[in-house]
Amino acid sequence: MAAEKQLDEMDSLARFKKEFYQTENQIYMDGNSLGLMSKRAEAKLLEVVESWKIHGIDGWTEGKDPWFTMAENLSARIAPLVGAKPHEVMVTGSITSNIHQMLSTIFQPSGDRFAIMVDELNFPSDIYAVESHLRLRGLDPATAMKKVRSRDGFTLELQDIIDELTDEVAIIMLPSVLYRSGQLLPIREIAEAAHEKGILVGFDLAHSIGALPHELHDCGVDFAVWCHYKYMNSGPGGTGGLYIHERHHDLLPGNAGWFGSDKAKQFDMDHSFSKAEGAGAYQIGTPNIFSMAPLLGSIEIFEEAGIEAVREKSLQLTSMLRELIAQKIPALKDVTPVEDAGRGGHIALAHEEAARICKALKEAGVVPDFRAPNIIRLAPVALYTSYSDVEKVVERLKAIMDNEVYKNFSNDRNVVA
Hints:
The protein is α/β, with parallel strands linked by helices. The protein is 37% helix and 12% strand. It has helices at 2-10, 39-55, 70-82, 95-106, 124-136, 141-144, 158-163, 187-196, 216-219, 289-305, 307-328, 354-363, 387-402; strands at residues 27-28, 89-91, 115-119, 145-148, 169-175, 200-204, 223-226, 241-244, 333-334, 347-350, 366-367, 369-371, 375-378.
């Protein structure tokens, strides 16, 4: 315990812990599913509610954060977190709606190039979206959706991805971090290999934005999508984001809507679409103002903390977590890649009793995350998890395993796992 306390005393990010609401005697390890509320996010949401109260419709152009340009202003501040130019990013939609927008815009199958490559470990919603775009173009997902196979059921090998870059593939769309195992894929290497074969590259950053820095523009990634409610702490269902490389900004949005218009002409009510410059063109409908507002507070914290410092502490926390588990609870199988460069912000543990163990952890004051069929995910988030918290989590988990406390619970998932 002394070592953990010393690390906490030296922690440059420790001051941010008090900015987040946390239940007393509870350790929250589920920030890779839904981040905690910060006092700044709460304050910004209340400010925007007050603006509605005071200004009514004039809130679109008046007040501290006018709604009409809120998305554009936020996008410029989010861009550094993903390594993009400000005009390549737009805070809009959700992951799935943004996948639909990007594929409807950028996926242009031909006779020779018609397939979309995904992986067999991807999040289901991404797969559903890809399948729907293939069907809309008269293609059979059984043949036009190529899946990279996993050798171990948890991770992907770079060479296996490269081997699937065949002549019929038009686009590859992969997660930056695999949601179950926490593996961080080599984005630059994948993009370079794909571009050498004329294949476009997209990534889902759901489990990496806010946990680690990115270099989307410099890596040449063609498009990306993400949410802000995990490590970015913007609240449940918070507005998502998209990135589209500037070389594609000449493309008309596949799903056009009036908020993709040139803002100077938007209220001309002309039936001729005047496309906005940059990623703003790929907005569709009216922004969800109250869903964006908390992000105004959340981004302030990241700007003060620095994403490099967040990543450094995250790696230290996950390293400590996995080392303590390996020493004290060998029955749990760590399936997250060992190398720092190969993992995101959480550790994934496999056990046949995973659902029961997660329920026991909650009763013991630790909030984990279960993913079917057998994965316990633990995410020590740099902004609000201390090194002492990690030590306590392992001690509580050890007691659950040693005393078989988990047997007091059923081994089936809750409605929201």
